Amino acid sequence: MNQIKLIAVFLFLCTTSISFAQKAHVKGVILDEQQHPVAGVNISSSGNVSQSDSDGFYEIIVPSGKKISLIFTHVSLKMMSLTVHLASNEIFVFNPLMSSSEEQMGEVFVSSKSKKRIQGIANVDVATIKKIPGANAGIENILKTLSGVNSNNELSTQYAVRGGNYDENLVYVNEVEVYRPFLIRSGQQEGLSFTNTDLVQNVDFSAGGFQAKFGDKLSSVLDITYRKPTQFGASLEASLLGGSISVDAVSKNKKWSAVTGVRYRNNSLLVNSQDTQTNYTPTFADIQTNVNYDISKKWQMSFLGNISQNKYLYQPLTRETKFGTIDQPMALAVYYEGRERDQYNTYFGALKTTYKASPTFTLKLIGSLFHTIEQEHFDILAQYRLGNIENEDTSNVDFTRGIGSQLSHARNDLDALIANAEIKGFKEWKNDSQLEFGLKYTRESIRDRIVEWEMIDSAGFSINPPIAFLPKNNQPYKPYTGPLLPYQEVRATNFNTINRFSGYAQWNKKSEIGSSQVWYNLGARFQSWNVSGGAVEGKTQTVFSPRAQFTLKPDWDMDMLFRLSGGLYHQPPFYRELRDLNGVVNPNVKAQESVHIVLGNDYNFKMWNRPFKWVTELYYKSLSDVNVYSIDNVRIRYVANNNAKAYAQGVDFRLNGEFVPGTESWISFGYLKTEENYENKGYIARPTDQRLKFAMLFQDYMPSIPSVKLYLNLVYNTGLPGGAPAYSDPYLYQRRLNDYRRADVGFAKVFVDGNTKVAKAKWLKNFKELSVGVEIFNLFNNQNAITNTWVRDVYSKNQYAIPNYMTSRVFNVKLNARL
User: Is the distance from CB of 565 to CB of 552 less than 8 angstroms?
Assistant: First the structure.
């Protein structure tokens, strides 16, 4: 018994205890018609009474599990009433506007989030996603502030989770897995994320230890649900980076509903803040729709469609980068010729039908088709001059240390067609247990041509690739008689088909141990696949992945629970993981395997008389059959031989709550260590070894003018292994990039929000939301580098790492409106 107490104290992590009992909370800020806080408003419900303070803030405890009414009264304003039905420990934010001329009444039913809490799933508020500034604003922008999620590239929407890479994350929209383009190698080429924030209703995220129903990846799950509208509406967002429009439509008989969004983005504002001066004319645009049809009360159908066209036209002109030390300042000047033409066109459609055979049994049939046509074509000649400088003036070079040129060429084309057919079932029993199961078939057809090479010369003499059998080139001191070869070259043509069968079954049960509540989840997945086509024929491989979750909520005064989850996770190779560094497909690459254990503690408490949540998770992954890779910007290249083992271990903390009354903010901190052992050479840091991470998402408002809001997005990550030449052996050359520091801040004037109704300004009456703001990206103008350019000193024959900096400080103006 004493050991049990000691373990509980350790998991508790020194937090204090305050009881929530079986209650719920309603709180917010009360404003008048002039948007001023209203003090002295009496709020009463079921015998409980509260009153708003001088800032208009109020909070009241109400009974949970039943419908109750709240009454708002003031000596000079009309009465308001609100009806709610809240779950135990539910916190509902309601910011009313009290009128002097009319009474207001409303009814709200809030779904319980306890199930997600039990499963260790983080739920992200959609309204917060839209408000928080970032170079790539959206869902991924918020994910990067959560525990366990890392990214050192503000131009990219990709992210790494607990030592995994970008290819190890599952993304679902309406239970359909979605995919990214294959050929993108830099963040500024990405354009738009698949998910359109204007269409989103719910966002759930798990950083590990997820259930069997969520698929075959090693790191994380992002599960997104699109909105099913109930009435007509429209929204508009416009900024210097582009804009979006969305429309909600509902038929008269309410059987049909649709939400459709159109987006356009132009990254010129961000790219023009970099060292390289360019002619840059990108076009990133898409249209997306989610259509729902209620055939009957038991049978519903929906269609999710997306067409995306990303054109990346890039013509670099010049570049000037200063580096070195105070004693020896240096500069790199580069002059470019040529251009890059990339295009990524994707087409996606998914049809889903749901049949509710009985109140306790549901079946779903899902079919989807994803088609991507991609090209990456460029011919760019870069001629550089490296030298010492005087007085910070790059035009005044007193000593030239190196001159040279680099010619890069690519004609890469890819056409991929991915088809899925899936059936899912859900059965529930009265004894608080459920069974979920599914079976899926996937066919991937890939046509890929790779032709890319790079020629390098220094002081007018060609540099050969670092290949052992080539004679040493010691020009100009000694004539060279060997062959002249590209410094790097990849040529391959692959036509491949991958057929996959996968399935899962899991059982959920709620029970009790003494007076404590317990939730069990036991499940397993399998996948069988075969790679064929062209000159290759792979063997059929099958993996089996058991998983489990156990959650305990002790019968304590404090609102705390403990989670233990994990299992055996597999990631069968996708096409990019089958292709080695020379572009050749190895059809027999095995699935990477990970034994994953997560121990979590979740604690709801009150601080400053406001609700807060503290979440702690310890995790460990033991990986085998590891497919070693390298990362250059966001491009991942695999060795494709499974000749490594690895591990990842760490701890994540997250504190979120109302640091400012009526707004949610959070702070997250994480420690991670991940290493790999390739061919028994010893353990070295993996490319995603992000040792320390700190992030803060903060929302505030001016107490005297609550309609003026502030949003802060701050991230600090220690440096990743990287920046070494692509051809270098990581066992001989380990290097880390500098730490990543970035703060984005936004200021907004809110004229109308979801809880405000303006009576006097007639032109605002048709708006449900309206705000205008200013955003400052990279507030402190930190210089963050994602890669290095390597240039040679012709005299000393040294190579210098010239950092490729990302965006500097940028100002943006933003308009949001919703009808």
Answer: no
Per residue in 192-226, pLDDT tens?
A: 889 999 999 899 999 999 999 998 999 999 999 99
The amino acid occupying position 507 is: W
20 touches 34 (CB < 8 A): no
SS3 content of the chain, % helix, strand, coil (to 5): 5, 60, 35
Give the model confidence (pLDDT) of 687-707 as tens digits: 999 999 999 999 998 888 888
Full strand arrangement of the beta sheet holding 48-51: 48-51, 42-45, 67-73, 80-85, 104-109
Question: Cα 242 from chain centroid?
Answer: 20
The residue type found at 170 is L
Cβ atoms of 185 and 359 within 8 Å: the answer is: no
Distances in Å between the Cα of 117 and the Cα atoms of 162, 203, 438, 613, 780 are 20, 14, 24, 11, 36
The set of residues, in sequence order, having a beta carbon less than 8 Å from that of 431 and lying 6+ positions away, is none
Long-range contacts of residues 801-805, Cβ cutoff 8 Å, at least 24 apart: 801/723, 801/735, 802/321, 802/323, 802/332, 803/321, 803/323, 803/723, 803/737, 803/738, 804/275, 805/274, 805/275, 805/321
**Average model confidence (pLDDT) across the chain:** 86
Taking the alpha carbons of 391, 396, 402, 406 in that order, is the dihedral positive or negative? Answer: positive
Cβ neighbours of 707 (radius 10 Å): 18
Instruction: State residue 289 phi and psi, 5-degree precision.
Output: -145, 150
Q: How many CB atoms neighbour CB 608 within 10 A? A: 10
Using the predicted structure, report yes or no on whether residue 534 has a pLDDT greater than 80.
no
Nearest to 791 by CA among 258, 389, 321, 273: 321
| HSE-up of residue 703 (Cα within 13 Å, Cβ side) | 8
**Res. 175: pLDDT tops 70:** yes
Backbone φ, ψ for residue 126 (5° rounding): -65, -40
Residue 536 in tokens = 């290759």
Rg (CA), the chain: 29
Please say whether the beta carbons of 689 and 163 come within 8 A: yes
Q: Round to whole Å and give the CA distance between 115 and 734.
A: 44
For residues 657 and 673, the answer to whether their CB atoms sit within 8 Å is no
Cα(727)–Cα(489) distance, rounded to whole angstroms?
Answer: 11
584 to 54, 207, 640, 729: CA distances (angstroms): 69, 32, 9, 20
- Residue range 759-788, pLDDT digits in tens: 446 777 778 888 999 999 999 999 898 888
Ranges assigned E (strand) in 207-252: 220-226, 233-239, 242-250
Joined together, the tokens standing for residue 78 give 């009309």
How far is the C-alpha of 245 from the C-alpha of 810, rounded, in Å? 24
Q: How far apart are CA 133 and CA 711, in angstroms?
A: 7
Q: Whose CA is closest to 726, among 650, 653, 788, 656?
A: 788
CA distance 720 to 686: 9
Grouping H, G, I as helix, E, B as strand and the rest as coil, residue 504 is: strand
Peptide bond into 476 cis (omega under 30): yes
| pLDDT tens digit sequence for 273-311 | 777 788 887 889 999 999 999 999 899 999 999 999 999
Length of the chain: 819
Using CA atoms, how far apart are residues 83 and 220, in angstroms rounded to an integer? 38
